[in-house]
Amino acid sequence: MISKILVPTDGSKTAQKAGAYAVGLAKQLHASIIVMSVVDKRFMVSRTVLFKPSSRYVAESIEDYQQEAAEKYAEEIKKLCKKKGVQSKTVIKPGHPVEEIAKEAEKSKAGLIVMGSHGQSALAAATLGSVTYGVIHKDTTIPILVVKR
């Protein structure tokens, strides 16, 4: 029986759709949700980002900016869990998304991973580095449910 569902999110509409699907499934199964977001630092070129919230520019570290974004993405799914009466927790980790998702699924003893996919072909997914494609082909025994856009 599935008692924990891992839901990785990057804030995309597809990830949010997968999150909603997972919450509905968790409600039916009386399972809990682990909402996960991975801060991918592989492609960081700069250490700060400038943005203009008002009449002056503000510098913020990219790590802080990405952490805040990851928390925001996870919070959207957590709100849905609360609304539906599904127990949830949030995990935010730095690293390579495919590796961290697989590690967290094993560590938390998730019975299912629910992820969104943009529906790319296998060749395009491999070329573009699709996280869903990577997790599907990762060496894990945990079932993966893919929700297409």
What does this structure look like?
The two termini are 27 Å apart. The chain is of the alpha/beta class and 149 residues long. The chain has a 5-stranded parallel β-sheet, sandwiched between helices. Helices cover 43% and strands 26% of the residues. Helix 1 packs parallel to helix 2. The protein has a single domain, classed as HUPs (Rossmann fold, 3-Layer(aba) Sandwich), CATH 3.40.50.620. The protein is globular, with a radius of gyration of 16 Å.
In total, how many beta strands?
Answer: 7
The biggest sheet, with number of strands, parallel, antiparallel or mixed sense and barrel status, is: 5 strands, parallel
Gyration radius, rounded = 16 Å
What is the first-to-last residue Cα distance? 27 Å
- Superfamily (CATH H level) name: HUPs
What is the mean predicted local confidence, pLDDT? 85
Query: What general form does the structure show?
Result: globular
- Per CATH, the architecture is 3-Layer(aba) Sandwich
The percent range for helix content is 40-55%
What's the helix count?
5
Low-confidence spans: none
Strand content: 25-35%
* Sequence of strands across the biggest β-sheet: 5-2-1-6-7
Order of helices and strands: EHEEEHEHEHHE
CATH topology: Rossmann fold
Tell me the number of structural domains.
1
